[in-house]
Structure formats: C-alpha cells, structure tokens
Design goal:
about 65% helix; mainly alpha; two-stranded antiparallel ribbon; globular; two-stranded parallel ribbon
Length: about 450
C-alpha cells in the first residue's frame, strides 16, 4: 500500500472527543512508589483500598458493588496494578462475572469495563485466555437480556478487548465476531433478541467487529462472509445516523486494506472453470462484486463532500467528510492514512487503517487511562511499536509532568514526607556528632 507524500491534517480519523490524546494526560496520577532524594522511599500503597473494593463486591446491595467497581476502574486507570492482579486475579474476574449475571445495567457496564481493564493489565498469556474462556458465555447471555443500549455497548467493548488480548486462536476471534454480528444484524430464528437494534448499538457492533477484524488474516475467511459483511456495511452508508455511517466506513476501509474484496472477486471469477451452470453463477457473482465495489466508491465520494444539512452538528460532519476523503484516497490511490499523536511528549505514529482502528478503539475504551497505559503497558507498546523515552527521572524512576509538579509542590504529601525525612536525617546526624565529640573530648585528632 502506498502512503501519501503530503499528509492532510487528519482530525477526523483520530478520535478527538477527549483531551488525553495529544498532550501529557492529566489523568496520570502519582506512581505507587517514588524515590525520595535517592535515599528512602515513600510508598503510596493503594492495595488496601483495592482489597476493600473487591471485598465489597460480595455485598448484597447493588449500589455498594457499583461504587466498588468504580473504585477499581479508577485504580486500574491510574496505575498498572500488576501486583494486585497477581493476588486477586481469579477473585476479581469471577466477582465481575457475577455482577454481569445479576447486576443492574449500571453494574453490568462497570463490571464489563473492569474485565476489559483486567485483560489489558495481565496482557497476552494464560490469564488472558482464561478471562476470554470464562467470560464468553456470561457475556453472550447478557446480550439476550433486556438492558439499555449503552450497557450493550459496554458488553461489546469488553468482548472486543478480552478477545483482542486473549484470542490467540483465530476460531475464538471468529466466534466473538459472530456474536457481535448477530447482535447488530439479527436473522430470523437466531438466539439473539429480535428487537431491531438502535443506531447506537449498530455503531458499537460495527466498531467492535472492525476492531477484531484488524487481527484476522482476511485471506482465510470465506467469500460468503465477505459478501455478507461488505453488502451490509455498504447498506449502512445510506443510513441517516452519521455515527453509523462513520463506523461502516471504517469497517469497509479495513476490508479493502486487507485486500479481501479483490480476493473475493478473484475467487468468483476463477471458479468459472467448472460446469456451465456454475460458470454462469460465478460470472454473476463476479459482476455483483464489481458492481458493489463501484457502488461503495460512489457512496464514499458523496459522503466525503456531503453538504451541511439543517441541524447537523458541524464537528461530526467534518469528521465524516475527512474520514471519507481518506477512504476515497485509499480506494483510488492506495494511500494509507498516517497519524501522529503526542503521548507524554513522545510521538506515537500509525500508518495503516488497521492500526488507526485499533488506536481509536483502545483510546475510547481506556479513556482517562489511555496515556498511563501507553506509557507503561508493554503489550500496547508492542502493538503500536511505541517506545516512550525515560524523562523526568527522580531517583532513577520515571514520573510524569504531573507527578513532577506534585513532587515540587511544597504542600504535596510527597514533599511534606520528604521534608520530614530530611529533618529526621539532620537530627540523627546531629546526635551522632554530639556523641562523637563527647567521647573524644572535642578533638578529632586525639
């Protein structure tokens, strides 16, 4: 794939709904341990608070469990809780699954988010696979219950994240994608609730499905799957809801980047070597695919230049235009979008649709915790080839700009502790000097 020589500022492609993406995040809190003057350490141990929160998940009152989950989410956003996870991994997972089974819509949403954060914290491996295997059935059952659209979106985010981290087997990823697909595109006779999904749910489904598609080898997926998905996504480009159109455009961009529609067309054309009847069918299939590709190209061109309508939010209209300008440029000239963003002073760059879809999805999921995870989560750093530079070192440990400000503040708990420590050292030093002179009569050389 080519890359454009002159890159247009790509505000639409990089989600711009929060302020944590291009600057050092204000959500980055102090480290659990911070060296003080290179001598002793002042510890901010949050394990006790987290332990209490996990214990509160056993309480009967739903509001108590909701508050506990909110505390856990904040802790996981503030720091990568590796030591805590090592001790309480199984307990936290099962209590969150219990919340998904019996909790309110709010509790389900919080528990889903916690499980996703847990998966991102443990990273790829046996624990991530266990999270996926243990969660897939409870999540599937929760989709069938009568809950709010926003909570369905939370469940979709959870399923996408735990599959992204723990789905090492392509069949596992396909299974999760199929669950999502049936939710957004239910068929008669399926086990999914037959109520027509809202635009909000469709957007969440397509976004989560596209996110997982970026991890798949498109050449191994069946032509039937491609025909169904491409046709459906093309139909979504004609919907009234702008967010649905944007999500569908991103999904189609990933499909085209994978070369899947060309592969689909080649297979249809190549299968004409069989009987006359099969040859006629394959020719019809090939013509249909070529026609569909032309239709999508026209849809993309129209959406890239859509005029502002009455009541249209200008911000999102510009997002749509910019997105489809990039898709059009990609379809016509094979130029991939290139994005650069600052994370704590370091540049993270993407150069493909797949990377961009992954980045946007993870940013939306992590929200205020995105910067912290990108700075310290090796799994996410490996995905994007991001290596943050070690800056603002105090006592050999990396701290953020916010932490440095906190360290310098005379009223900060850390600085007060440091002052107390230095005063203590001075007193001890003075005591040693008094003892030294009393023994030696005040003469150092005697």
């Amino acid at each position: 794939m080519g890359k454009r020589k002159t890159q247009r500022k790509n505000a639409a492609m990089l989600d711009s709904d929060d302020d944590n993406c291009s600057v050092s995040s204000s959500s980055t809190n102090r480290s659990d341990r911070m060296s003080v003057a290179g001598t002793e350490e002042v510890e901010f141990n949050k394990d006790g608070l987290l332990d209490e929160a996990v214990d509160a998940l056993y309480e009967k009152r739903g509001s108590t469990r909701e508050k506990a989950l909110a505390v856990i989410i904040e802790a996981f956003n503030s720091n990568l809780q590796h030591q805590f996870v090592e001790k309480k991994f199984v307990t936290l997972l099962h209590q969150c699954l219990n919340s998904i089974k019996k909790g309110s819509s709010k509790e389900i949403s919080l528990a889903s988010h916690t499980i996703g954060l847990l998966a991102l914290t443990v990273g790829p491996g046996d624990n991530a696979r266990e999270i996926l295997e243990e969660s897939i059935i409870p999540l599937s059952q929760a989709f069938k219950s009568d809950i709010e659209s926003s909570k369905i979106a939370s469940l979709l985010g959870c399923l996408a994240i735990i599959t992204f981290v723990g789905g090492t087997d392509p069949e596992q990823t396909e299974k999760s994608m199929q669950i999502m697909w049936q939710l957004g595109h239910p068929k008669l006779g399926s086990n999914v609730v037959s109520v027509k999904p809202s635009a909000y749910v469709i957007t969440a489904v397509v976004s989560a499905w596209s996110f997982l598609l970026t991890t798949m080898d498109g050449w191994k997926l069946s032509p039937k799957l491609w025909q169904e998905s491409i046709t459906y996504l093309s139909s979504l480009l004609d919907k009234d809801d702008r967010f649905v159109r944007i999500a569908a455009g991103e999904g189609l961009a990933v499909i085209f980047e994978m070369g899947s529609i060309e592969k689909f067309a080649a297979e249809a054309k190549g299968s004409s070597d069989g009987s006359v009847q099969e040859g006629n069918k394959s020719k019809e299939g090939f013509s249909y695919i070529q026609g569909l590709k032309g239709k999508i190209l026209n849809q993309v061109r129209e959406l890239s230049a859509e005029a502002a309508g009455k009541g249209s939010a200008k911000k999102y209209l510009n997002n749509q235009r910019n997105l489809f300008k990039d898709v059009l440029e990609f379809l016509e000239d094979s130029y991939s979008p290139e994005i650069s963003m600052k994370i704590g002073g370091d540049a993270l760059q993407t150069s493909s649709w797949s990377q961009l879809i992954q980045l946007n999805f993870l940013r939306r999921f992590l929200a205020g915790g995105f910067t912290k995870h990108m700075q310290e989560n090796e799994f996410l750093q490996d995905i994007f080839g991001f290596t943050p530079k070690k800056r603002n070192l105090i006592g050999g440990e990396h701290i953020s700009n916010g932490e440095k400000r906190m360290y310098k503040s005379p009223n900060s708990a850390l600085n007060k502790s440091r002052t107390q420590l230095l005063n203590k050292q001075r007193m001890l030093s003075a005591g040693r000097n008094i003892g030294h002179y009393s023994v030696n009569g005040g003469d150092e050389d005697s």
